[in-house]
Amino acid sequence: MTKVSDIKTKNWGLSVVSQGEVVQDLEDINQCITIILATVKGTDPLRPEFGCDILKWIDKPVNQAIPNIIKEAVAAINMWEARVVVTKANATIENYTIFVTIEWETVSSSLISSTQVQYNANRT
């Protein structure tokens, strides 16, 4: 468990998963990308352009949805996460779940990682 007193880097943030913990370096970037992709544009009142419009493609035909989901995700990351370069993006749909996988590398040290976000549609 990393606490605020253990921070040893300039790239860090409070964990959105574990109260009182922090994420650093690649974990921080991964968390920021997840937040960008999970936030619907217009829902942050102080930054109305923050986030990603992936959800507007949910009810479109798959051949239209997939390329536009990827386009929206990459554009949002390019806009809001200057510490990375997207090297590959993929979206798949399984049953009622959209999986968006972003492969990226850091600008400063060329470390490579990936982030996956899933969007579930509750259907009964």
Description:
With 124 residues, this protein is α+β, with helices and mostly antiparallel strands. The chain is built from 2 helices and 5 strands. The protein has a single domain, classed as Nuclear Transport Factor 2, Chain: A, CATH 3.10.450.40. Helices cover 27% and strands 29% of the residues. The strands form 2 sheets. A 3-stranded antiparallel beta sheet has the order 3-4-5, with helices on one face. It is globular, with a radius of gyration of 15 Å. A hairpin with a 7-residue loop joins strand 1 and strand 2.
Overall body shape:
globular
Largest sheet data: 3 strands, antiparallel
Report the count of strand segments.
Answer: 5
The side-by-side strand order for the widest beta sheet comes to 3-4-5
**What separation lies between the terminal Cα atoms?**
39 Å
Low-confidence stretches: none
Strand content: 25-35%
Query: How would you classify the helix and strand content by structural class?
Result: alpha+beta
Can you tag this structure with a few keywords?
alpha+beta, Nuclear Transport Factor 2, Chain: A, globular
What secondary-structure arrangement, pairings included, does this model have?
Elements: E1 12-14, E2 22-24, H1 25-38, H2 62-80, E3 84-94, E4 97-106, E5 112-120
Antiparallel strand pairs: 1-2, 3-4, 4-5
